[in-house]
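User: I've been going back and forth on whether these two constructs are worth ordering. Before I decide, could you fold them both?

Assistant: Sure. I'll take them in the order you sent them. The first construct and its C-alpha cells:
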Amino acid sequence: MLCFGAASAVAQNPRAVIKAVYKGDSLSTIAPKYFKAKTSNPDGDPSMKLMDAVYLNAADSSIKAYYIYCSNRAAIESNNEIAKMLKSLQLRLPDVFYSIETASASEVLRIDREPVYDEYIAVASDNAHSSLDVLERARENCAYDAVMSAISIEECDRFLKKYPDALQEHSSAVSELRTDLLFDEASRSTDEKLISSFIESYPKYARVDELKAYLADLNYSKVAGSTDIELLRQFVTAYPMHKGSAAIMERLSELEYKVLDIKNIDAVERFLATYPQSSHSASLRQYAEFERMIYRCNLQEVFQYIGIHGYDASYPRIVKAVAKKHGALILTPDIGYTDCVRFVDSRGRVGFWDMNGTVAVQPKYEIWGADKAAFSYDNAFSGEFVKGRNVALVKNNGRVGLVNSQGSVVVPARSLGGFIGENVTLLLEEVDSLKGRQYVCERYSLAGGSLGKGVYNVPSARHRRRAEFNDGVHPVPYALWLNDKAAASLERKDYLRILTRDGISMGLKLKGSENGLYAYNDRCISTDKGLVNTSSWSVMGPDPYQAHGYLKEGRIPVKKDGRWGYLDADMNQVIAPTYRAASPFCGGSALVTDPDQDMLIDRDGMVIFSAPRIVRIMLGNAASAEWDHYAFYLYSDGEGRWGVVDSAADVLLEPLGVDVDARTGLGKVCFGADGHLECTVDGKVEKYETIKLLTGLHQ
C-alpha cells in the first residue's frame, strides 16, 4: 500500500481517486472520495495536484486539469511516492499528461461563450501558463462575434472597455458599429441634447450633415410661429443655411423694425448690417445716408443730395444743418437747374456757393424782391445762375445788376429789375402806355455786351418756374411754354390754341379754370377735349376738376365739388378732396384749411401740426416766391398770441403777445429786408435772427 500522507487513512485518498478515475468509475462514486481527500490532505502536496488534474479531466474540465498538471508537473514527476503509486496502477506520467492535454485541446475547440474563456483564462493566468495569449485572443474573437451579432450599444461599450488592446480591425469595427447605432438612436430621437452631443462628438461622421439638418428642422418647428426675437435670433445664428431661415430673417426684421429707435443712427446701422435685404432696408439705408450727410454737412454732398431727392420732408433738416454749420440759409428754389447756389448769411447778405460748396460770389447783395417794388411775373430764377448761363441778377441798394459765377460785375446795379433768357433784359423805367404795362429796357448778351435799348411789354402770364421767354418764343402778352414739346399762344378768335414746337395746330383749345391754370404737370394739360398727355398728345379722359395747382413735390392740389385734395404725378388721387382750401406742398408738407382749424399735412395726408389759424410768412416779396421749397408759418394759439412754425412742423418761435393788424386780424410778424424775422410788440419792432431761430438759439 502506497503512503502519500502522514496517516495511513489519509494517504490512500489520492490513490483511491486516481484509481477510480482510471477504472472508469462514475463521477458520483468518485466525487465523495475526491472532496474527502481535498479536505483531509495538504492542498500543496504534489499527489493532491495530480489528483486534482485527473479528477477535473474526468469531470470535463480538461483545460483546468491541464493547467494544474502543467503548473505542477515538475513536482509531480520528481516525487518518488507518486511514481510508485502510478507504477502500482500500471500508469505512466506521460500517458496521464497526454490524455489530459488531448482532452483540454478538444474542449478549447468547443468553447463558444466568452464566460467560459474567462474561466479558463483565469486558471491560465493563475498558473502563468504559456497558452494565456492564445486563449485571450480566442476569447476576443468570441466576444467580437457576439458583439457583431447582438448589434447593441451596450455590448459595443462592454467590448471596448474589456478589450482596450483588441486587434485594430476589431476595435475599429466595433467603434464604427457603435457610432452607427448612436446615429440611429439620435436620428429617431427628439432629444436635442442627445442629437447635439452626437454632432459634437462625431463631427466627421459620414452622415452627420443629415443629423444637423434633422436638428435644424426640430428647432425650426419650435420657432416657425414664434414672435420671440431672442429665440428667432438664436435659430438664424445657429442655422443660417436652413430652408426656413430666409422667412425667419424676414419675420425677425419686421419684429426688430417695430422696436427700432429710428433716431439712434447706430441702431439703424446695426439693423442694416443684420438685415441688408429687409423690405425696410432701402428706406433705412437712405435715411442712414441722410443722417451721416447731416452730421458731416459737407455742402457738396448736401447739394448732390438735394439734386437727387428734391425738396421733400427731409429738406427742413438740411436747411437747419447748413444754418448751424455754415451760418447761412439756402435760397435757391431748385438746385437741379442751377450752376451756383444762392444763400443769405447771418447779416442778411446774399452770395453764391458753387456746387463744391466754395463761395463763388461773396455775400454782399440784398435778398431778391425784399422791397415793395414787385413785378407781376415770377422772377425767382432771375437771381440764380441758371445752368449754362454763367450770369445772375443781383440787387444792391435797391437796384439790380448782373454778375458772373466768378463774382465779377457784368452790368452794374442800376435797373429796376430784369429777366434772363437767351439774353438779358434789364428794366430801366416804367412808361405809361395804352397797350399795357411797358418798360424802357436795355438788352445785353450773357457776356454783358449791349444789344440796344427799347420799349417792351412785360410778360404777365403765369408760367412754371424756369419757363423762359426768349428770342425763340417772343414775350408777347399771355405767351406760355407748357413743356419742351409744345407751346400755347393766344389767338383772338379761338382763345388759346395748342401748337407743337414746329407750329402745327393740334386742333385743341385750352380749358379755362377758376384759377386760370392749364397744366397739371409736365405731361398733362386741360383742354376742351379733356385731359391730354403732351408726350403722346392722346386724350386721357375728362377733366373733373374745377381748379388745381401745379405738380410740386409729387403732389397736385385739385378742387372737386367745392373741396380740395391732392393727386400724384400720375393723376391718381392720393388725398381725398375734403379741405376748404389747400396750398402746394413745400418742404414735405402743405397748408390746408378746414372750417374749424388750419393744418399742416404730410404727403400721405396725415396732420403734423394744427392751430386755429396758420398763415405763410414770405421771406422777401411774395411775387418772387423766395423759399418756395421751405416755408415759415405764422400760427395762433387761440388766446391772442402768435408764434412761428416751419414746414417740418417744428416750432421756431413760441407764441408771443404781438400786436395784431386791424385789417387782417393777424399778428404783426414778418421778414424784414435783411431776411430776419420782425415782431411788433406794443408798437416796437423786435428782431430775431433767422439762423438763430433755425438752430434753436432763440429758444
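The second construct, handled the same way:
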Amino acid sequence: MDGWKRFPGLLREDLKSKLGFVAASWYVLGMFCLLFSMKKAVPAGEIRSFYVGAGNTSFFLSAILFGVIMGAGAFRFLYVQSKADLYFGIPFTRSQLFTAGILNNFFIFSVPLVLCRFLFFKISLSMGYCEYEDNIFCVWMGCLVLIVGFLFVMNLSMLAFFLAQNTGYRIGLLALLMLGPDAGIRLSEKMLEALSPSFYRSEFLDLLKRYVPPLSLLENAAGVKEYVDGVNWKAGDHLSYLLVMIGGTGILLCINLVIFNIRPVERKSGMFTFRFVEHLVRYSCGILAALWFTGGLKVFSAGGNPVVVMVISLVMGVPVIHGLLNMVIAFDAKKFFTGKWNLLAEFLVMAVVLGGFLFWGKMGSQIPKERETVSMAIALTDLGSGDDSSQVLENMCLTGEELSRAYDWLGLITGYEGNSAPLVEERTYEALVKYELQNGRTKYFKYRFPGSGLEGFGEVFDQEGFKRGTYEAFRMDSLKYYEVRWTNGLESYTLDLDEEERRDFLKAYQQDLEELTFEEVCRQIPVGRLTFASTKNQGDVSGLLYPGYDKTLTYLSQLNINTDKKVSDYELTQIVVEKYMSTEGFLYDVRYLESQKTITDQIKMTEMSLNLFPEELWIDRLQDHVGRDMEYFVTYRDSAGKTVKKVKCLALGKE
C-alpha cells in the first residue's frame, strides 16, 4: 500500500528518464501540423479531408516508429546489471515499476497525438479541407486507432527486448515478431501453388493475411491502403480489425507483465532470457526456411513429383538449416554440427509441416460439384479490356443456366470432370475461377488451358452475368461527374456532351457491349477506346470500340469524329522496325533485340502501314493473328498536319 502512495513519485522519476521521448514526440507530431499549415491551398486533384482521419500516412508511420523505439526504451535499466540491481532494490514491486513505465509511454505519445490531431483538424477547417460535422468522428477514431496501434507495436517491441539479451538479437527477434507472420503466410501460398497447379487463393490464408501480420492488422484498422483518412472512414469496415488489435494489445500487455515479473536480474548464458525462447526462434525460423527451401526446390524441379521434392528437401535442407540456426542462436560457428536431438526433432516437425501442406494441396485441388455450388465467377486474365481479375471475381455472379454453361466449359478445359491438371500446348491461357458453395465457403482455382479451349468460351461470354461482372461500363448508370474521352491510339479528344447526352451515349455503348460476341474479341482489332473519366476522383472506366459497335460509332461520327481513320490514313514520316528474338529459359524467357531498320520511303511505308495498328488498342491478348516479335515505331503528322507524333504499333499476321 505504501508503494502505491509513493507511486506518483515513481511516475515522475520514470518520466525524467524519458525526456528525450517527450521532446521527440512533441517535435515530430508538431512538425506535421506546421508543415501542413504552410500549404497555401488545396492541391489540384487532391482529395478533400485527406488529412484528418485514421489513415493519415504521416501519423500512421509515427505510431509505428514511436511504438518500436519507446517499447525498446521503456525499461532501459534492464540492460545494465548495476542499474537493474538499483531499480529492483527500491521499495516498489515489479508490477509497480512496469505500470509506471507503461503509463508514461502511453501519455508521452497519446497527449501530443490528440492535441496535434485536433490542431490539424482546426487547420483543415480553416483551409476548407473539411467540414466539422462530417469529420469530427473520423478525428476521434483516428486518435483511437493510432493510440491502440502504438500500444500494440510498443508491446511487441517490449516483448522482443525482454526476451533477448543482446541488441542484435533483440532487433532480430522484433523483426521475427513483426514480419514473420506475413512471411509465413506468403510462403504457405507459394507452397500450395507449387504443390497444386490449380491453386490460386485460399480463403483461410486471406483471412490470416488480414488479421495476423501486425503491420497488416494496423493498416486495415486505419484504412491506409484504402485512403480512408477523411470523411470516408467507415467504422463498420474497420471495427473488426480494431477489436482484434485491442485484444492483441491486452494479451501482449499481460504477457509482458508476467515476463517482467519473472525475468531474472542476472544475465544468463546464451542470447535469450529463457530457454523456451530459443526453441521458439529455432522452430519458427526453421519452418520458414523449410517452406522457402522446398518451394524453391519445387520450382527448380520443373514439375517434379511433390513427394520426391519434399523427401529431398527434408534430407538435404533440414541439416543445413539446423546447422545455420545453431550458429546464429549460439553465435558460434563451431556449433554447426551440434544438437543431434534438436536435429531429430526438427526432422519430425518439418515432416509434419510439409506433409500437412501436401495433404492441404491435394484436398484443396478438388473441384466442387455443381450441386454444391451456389454461384461462380470466371476471369480470363488475357481479357485485358475488362476489370482487374480480382475485381471481376468480386463483381461476377453466375447462377442458374449461366452456372451450368460455366461448368460445361470448365469440364472442357480440364479434360474431364474433377481433373484440374493443365493441358500443355504452344500457347496457353489462364482462367481464374471463384466458387461460392452452399456451406458458405469460397474456393478459388486457377486453370491453364490451350487455345482450343477458347472455342467453347463464347457460351459463357455471351451471358449477361459474365459481361456485367467483367466490364464496369456495363454496370455504370450515371455519368453526372464524368467526362467522355475518345482515342484511336493516334489522336484523342474530349467529347463536348452535356449530362443527358452523356447518358444517351452510355446507353448506346452498353447496347453495343451487350451484343459483342467472343468471336469478335478474338478475331477483330479494336478501332478505338473510350474513357469515362471521373471529375470527382471516383476512378476512370475504360472500354474498347470494335468495328461492330454501330450505335457508338454512329454517335461519334455525328460529333465529327472519323472513327474509320487508321495508321495508313495519316501522313507518315518514318517507321522504325525492330525485330526481337525470344529464348525459352529454365526459370523465365529472355527477349532481346535482333535487328533494327528505319524506313522513310513513302511507298514502302504506305504498304506496310496497311497492317499496322497502335499497340495501345491491343488490350485483349486473345488474338492469335498478331505478330509478337516485331514492333513498329511510327512517326506521323496529326489531322491538322502540324504536329509530329510517334506511336508504337504492332502488325496483323504472324511473323
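Notes on the second construct follow. The longest helix spans residues 94-127. The chain has 23 helices and twelve strands.
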